[in-house]
Design goal:
The chain contains 6 helices and 5 strands, in the order H-E-E-E-H-H-H-E-E-H-H. With about 170 residues, the protein is α+β, with helices and mostly antiparallel strands. Helix 1 crosses helix 3.
Length: about 170
């Protein structure tokens, strides 16, 4: 979702009256994206090409693509515990909350809501597509995670194998 944030933001704002453009050549090297490949093989856009930098009181969201966090085992362990994972990932995602909400707002036809409404909603994380995370409203997440029938996906199959293993161990102990 954040990988598409800048492109979706630009598409959302490009026709607004309040859109503020700057010349491509005025951007610093860290902000300037590669332009379209030219006939001569270069990637630089013309220096006077307009670049949407700000709109609706928001700066263009740059450097949001490819963000990641590394979770390391605590206390000299050889593996990451659920506690390690949640402690690191939750804190990291909370620092990205405004970007995540902004990305949800401009995500096209999938999520039309006002910024105030989006900020007031409870958002939930689904790991059904692990190692990627999907973020849903609480209502949608709940409907997706409380169906009467089990989903036939890798996460559900893995969970069912673990449940069967634990039950078998308990039966052997009795």
């Amino acid at each position: 979702m954040l990988d598409q944030y800048e492109l979706n933001w630009e598409a959302w704002h490009e026709n607004h009256d309040a859109a503020e453009y700057v010349a491509y050549g005025d951007l610093d090297d860290d902000t300037r994206p590669f332009g379209e490949q030219q006939e001569d093989g270069t990637w630089e856009a013309d220096l006077d090409t307009p670049y949407l930098a700000r709109c609706c009181g928001q700066d263009r969201p740059v450097h949001k693509r490819g963000l990641s966090v590394q979770v390391t085992p605590a206390g000299g362990m050889d593996f990451v515990t659920i506690r390690d994972y949640v402690a690191v990932v939750h804190l990291w995602m909370m620092t990205l909350r405004e970007d995540i909400i902004g990305a949800k707002i401009v995500a096209g036809g999938r999520c039309h809501m006002a910024p105030a409404e989006a900020r007031s909603m409870n958002w939930m994380i689904s790991v059904r597509t692990a190692p990627w995370h999907e973020i849903f409203t609480y209502k949608f997440w709940l409907s997706d995670h409380t169906r009467g029938e089990l989903r036939d996906d890798a996460a559900t199959r893995s969970l069912m194998r673990e449940v069967a293993r634990v039950r078998a161990e308990k039966q052997q102990q009795q």
